[in-house]
Each structure stands twice: as structure tokens, then as C-alpha cells.
């Protein structure tokens, strides 16, 4: 293919030449300007058309490619020899994950359920009997507590511990109310709280950490433990620990609970807590599962602020690169989704533009076809009307009364000035005084035919045709217009003679 405007069109592939042809047919743009725009649109005709009409904004394809190239890759985790040996010896990677899974604890709302009144009345006798038996049984257990530990039955210890946990006098509430109560009790005991405790249930805190790719620090306290107060005042509320947790760049969510509450007690059981105060760091472990939350660090028992902070920082340092990689990959995926959405929107806009143009073309073609059809129908109707008019004139020319003789009586002599379009000039003719004005109009209408052939032909009147004269006859002095009446005669209107003039009248198009 020959070069055009310095561009070698022969170097384009068949699909590119087809795209160029489609683009130029729609936009009418010069080839020299169309090819660079198509190249910037990756030879996508729809995108190129949208850029041509809507303006060329940012290149979404280039942005998507740049976003894909700029995805940070997860930094490799560095382990020392001791950690590697421990992992190889106890946690085979092909058999089980390296971190303990973090369960999602949802407290059961069974304690919040209220029995209907009717059922309560039916079960009231059984409830009274149960309370009496339970009272007797607790009394027996109370006396058995005086026995040495070695002589107590196993069920006594378990029943006592269970009774102590369940009869602490704390009302079972919803997780959000429990979190608010824990914060109030914490502030009443240790002063104003400077830690951002999560004000909802542990399951919601775990979901927030998983969604936002943050670390969840779970703190479980037991007021009955001797080291709880010193741990909170000296370690948990130490300036360095509070500053580290409140730093947004560390991405730490703190959830605290009192094991006397039902939810915190369930969390302690699920997380295998055997010593208080208890803390653990939980985060998403992408290398062990895209949706798996794992316990990456346990901090059990009293410890110094330095040791406590070092344990948290070590877990964050070790698993932070994995979360950063997952966070960057998620951001890149979100950007790619947004770019695809923008591309789809641009494609839909271009399709809407094409549909609108196609609709306008169809409407214009339909209007042109309707106008052409209407003009054709009008032309056919005009031709048919003209044909019927000519047939009527030929028929009417045969019925026009002949001119009376010069010596006849009761004759009206009229001088008629024919219209300039007929070319007849001034015609003088005699009419009987009984000649109607309609007969006079017929004489003027058929004057040319009366000159060409004699009357008495065999032409018949066309059916359904009503003739209308395209002129009017008027007298000169005085000015009076005469209508083609079949009752009025020339003798009544003009007497013995007169001068008449024929004037053309523009007929209405519908007529």
C-alpha cells in the first residue's frame, strides 16, 4: 500500500488497517492524526472513538501496566539457624503451618435468652426442685473442701472451679457492652486509659485486623491474679509501650478482656491461656494461607516493659514484610479493578455514542424516505388530478353552448380579456341572456379546446371529480366579481353587454 502523509500504511497488519478504516469512517479524522491516537489506544476502535469525542484523558492502559509493574513484592523472611532447626524438627512445612491458628471466638447468647412466661410457669416446680438439690450439693462440696487435696474427688475440684467462674456475679452482656464495661472498669482501677482498646467483641477485632491487614494484640487480665496490677501499671501502661501501640505506622489493634466475663473466658480457653496476665499477637499469614489468621507471638506472665515491647516488635518485624506485600498487592488489585471499571465505563460511553449516531442515522434515513414517499405520493396525486382536470375540460368543451347568430334577439355581447398565461388576449363573443355564469366560466376554461376542435365529442365526465376554477371573472367599471353560479345569468348581471376581465387565482395546495 502506498505511503500517505509520510506514513507507510503497508506496515500495518490487516486488523490494524480494518480498525483504521472503521475509525476514520466514524470520525472523519485524517489518517496522519488517526494512527497515533489508535496506537495510544492499543488499536481499540471503541476507546479511540471515545477519546476523539470525549477528549483524551489519562491512558488507563498505561496506568494499569505501571500499577502492575510497581507492585511491591513480599520481602523474604530471614531466620537464624536456631529458628530454622526448630521449624524443621517440629513444624514440617508440608504437614502443618508454622504458626498456631487464631480461632474466631463468637460468644453464645444463650444466657441472654429469656424463657416465655407460659413455659416458665410450667417449669417452675422443676426449677425449685433443682435449686434445692443444687443447694444441698453445694453444701456437701463446701464441707469437702476441708479435706486435703489428695483426698478430694476429681469432680469436686472441677465443680468448684466451674462454680467460681460462673458465679462471679457479673451479668452476661453483648460483646460491645462487655468491651465498654471492661474499659470503664479499667479506667476506674488504673486511671484514665491511654490505650486505644477496641470497643467491640473479639471476633469483630479479629475481622478488622484481617480486613485492614493489621496486628491484633489481645490482652487478657484476671483481677484475682497477684501480678495483674503491677503488670498493667508498670508494663502495659508504660510510656514506651503506649507510644508504640498508639503509633499508626505500627498498625496495631488492641483488644482487652477480663476473664471473669464470658467472652474473655471463652477467648482464654480457645487460645490455651494457662497463666495470667496473657497477651498474644495475631495477624494474617499470607505465606501459610491467603485468609489464615495465626498467633505469631505469645507473651505470658509478668515481664518488664522492655521484654514486652521487644516481643511485640519482634513479631511485627518478622511478619510485617508479609503484610506489606499483601497490602501492596491488595492496593494494586483495587487499582486494577478501578481501571477496569474506568475502561468499561469508557467502552459503554463509546457504545452509547455509536448507538446515538446509529439512531440519528436511522431517523434521518427514515425521515428522508418518508419525505421522498410523500413527495412521490403528492406528485402522483397532482398528476392524477391534472389528468382528471384535462378529461373534465375535454368533456365540458363538448357541452358548451354554441354562439348565437348575429341577428338573434336577446343576445348579450361580452368582451372578455383572457389571462396573460393563455395568450388569447381580448375575446369578443355573443351569449344568450339565459346563459348562466357557470357556462361563462366553462367557456373561458375550455376556450383553447373550443378553438382546436368542434363540439360534440364522445369524451365522458370523470367519476368522482369536482372541478374548481382557477380564475375569477370580474367587470371593469364598476368593479364587481362574478361567481360561477348555475342560477344567475349573464343577462341579469351584465344587461346587453359589458367588458370583463379574467384574473388567475393561486389555488391552495390541498385543493
UniProtKB/TrEMBL annotation:
SMART domains membership: UAS
Coiled coil stretches, renumbered: 362-389
Location of the UAS domain: 181-313
Organism for this UniProt entry: Dichotomopilus funicola
Keyword Coiled coil attributed: yes
InterPro entries: Thioredoxin-like_sf, UAS, UBA-like_sf, Ubiquitin-like_domsf, UBX_domain-protein
Family matches, as SUPFAM superfamilies: Thioredoxin-like, UBA-like, Ubiquitin-like
Pfam short name (any one): UBA_4
Upper lineage: Eukaryota, Fungi, Dikarya, Ascomycota, Pezizomycotina
GO MF terms, alphabetically ordered: ubiquitin binding
GO CC terms, sorted: endoplasmic reticulum
Gene Ontology BP annotations: ERAD pathway
Keyword RNA-binding: no
Name of the protein in question: UAS domain-containing protein
Protein keywords: Coiled coil
Amino acid at each position: 500500500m502506498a505511503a500517505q502523509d509520510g506514513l507507510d500504511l503497508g506496515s500495518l497488519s490487516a486488523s490494524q488497517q480494518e480498525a483504521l478504516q472503521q475509525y476514520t469512517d466514524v470520525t472523519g479524522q485524517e489518517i496522519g492524526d488517526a494512527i497515533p491516537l489508535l496506537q495510544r489506544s492499543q488499536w481499540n476502535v471503541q476507546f479511540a472513538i471515545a477519546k476523539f469525542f470525549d477528549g483524551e484523558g489519562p491512558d488507563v492502559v498505561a496506568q494499569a501496566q505501571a500499577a502492575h509493574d510497581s507492585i511491591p513484592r513480599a520481602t523474604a523472611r530471614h531466620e537464624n539457624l536456631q529458628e530454622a532447626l526448630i521449624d524443621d524438627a517440629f513444624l514440617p512445612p508440608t504437614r502443618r503451618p508454622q504458626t498456631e491458628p487464631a480461632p474466631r471466638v463468637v460468644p453464645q447468647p444463650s444466657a441472654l435468652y429469656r424463657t416465655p412466661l407460659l413455659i416458665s410457669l410450667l417449669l417452675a416446680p422443676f426449677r425449685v426442685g433443682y435449686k434445692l438439690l443444687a443447694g444441698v450439693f453445694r453444701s456437701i462440696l463446701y464441707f469437702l473442701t476441708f479435706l486435703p487435696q489428695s483426698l478430694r474427688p476429681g469432680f469436686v475440684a472441677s465443680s468448684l472451679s466451674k462454680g467460681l467462674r460462673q458465679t462471679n456475679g457479673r451479668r452476661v452482656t453483648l460483646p460491645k457492652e462487655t468491651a465498654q464495661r471492661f474499659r470503664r472498669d479499667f479506667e476506674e482501677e488504673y486511671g484514665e486509659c491511654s490505650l486505644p482498646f477496641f470497643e467491640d467483641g473479639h471476633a469483630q477485632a479479629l475481622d478488622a485486623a484481617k480486613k485492614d491487614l493489621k496486628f491484633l494484640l489481645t490482652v487478657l487480665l484476671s483481677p484475682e491474679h497477684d501480678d495483674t496490677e503491677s503488670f498493667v501499671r508498670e508494663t502495659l501502661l508504660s510510656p514506651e509501650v503506649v507510644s508504640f501501640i498508639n503509633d499508626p505506622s505500627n498498625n496495631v489493634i488492641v483488644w482487652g478482656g477480663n476473664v471473669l466475663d464470658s467472652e474473655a473466658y471463652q477467648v482464654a480457653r480457645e487460645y490455651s491461656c494457662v497463666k495470667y496476665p496473657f497477651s498474644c499477637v495475631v495477624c494474617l499469614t499470607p505465606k501459610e494461607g491467603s485468609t489464615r489468621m495465626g498467633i505469631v507471638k505469645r507473651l505470658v506472665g509478668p515481664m518488664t516493659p522492655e521484654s514486652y515491647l521487644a516481643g511485640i516488635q519482634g513479631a511485627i518485624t518478622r511478619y510485617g514484610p508479609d503484610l506489606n506485600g499483601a497490602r501492596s498487592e491488595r492496593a494494586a488489585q483495587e487499582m486494577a479493578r478501578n481501571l477496569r471499571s474506568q475502561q468499561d465505563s469508557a467502552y459503554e460511553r463509546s457504545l452509547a455514542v455509536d448507538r446515538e449516531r446509529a439512531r440519528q442515522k436511522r431517523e434521518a434515513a427514515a425521515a428522508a424516505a418518508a419525505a421522498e414517499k410523500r413527495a412521490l405520493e403528492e406528485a402522483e396525486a397532482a398528476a392524477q388530478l391534472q389528468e382528471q382536470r384535462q378529461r373534465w375540460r375535454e368533456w365540458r368543451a363538448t357541452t358548451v353552448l354554441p354562439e348565437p347568430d348575429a341577428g338573434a334577439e336577446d343576445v348579450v355581447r361580452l368582451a372578455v380579456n383572457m389571462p396573460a398565461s393563455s395568450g388569447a388576449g381580448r375575446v369578443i363573443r355573443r351569449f344568450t341572456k339565459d346563459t348562466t355564469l357557470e357556462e361563462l366560466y366553462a367557456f373561458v376554461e375550455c376556450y383553447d379546446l373550443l378553438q382546436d376542435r368542434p363540439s360534440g365529442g364522445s369524451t365522458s365526465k370523470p367519476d368522482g371529480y369536482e372541478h374548481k376554477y382557477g380564475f375569477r371573472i370580474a367587470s371593469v367599471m364598476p368593479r364587481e366579481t362574478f361567481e360561477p353560479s348555475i342560477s344567475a345569468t349573464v343577462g341579469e348581471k351584465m344587461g346587453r353587454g359589458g367588458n370583463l376581465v379574467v384574473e388567475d387565482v393561486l389555488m391552495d395546495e390541498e385543493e
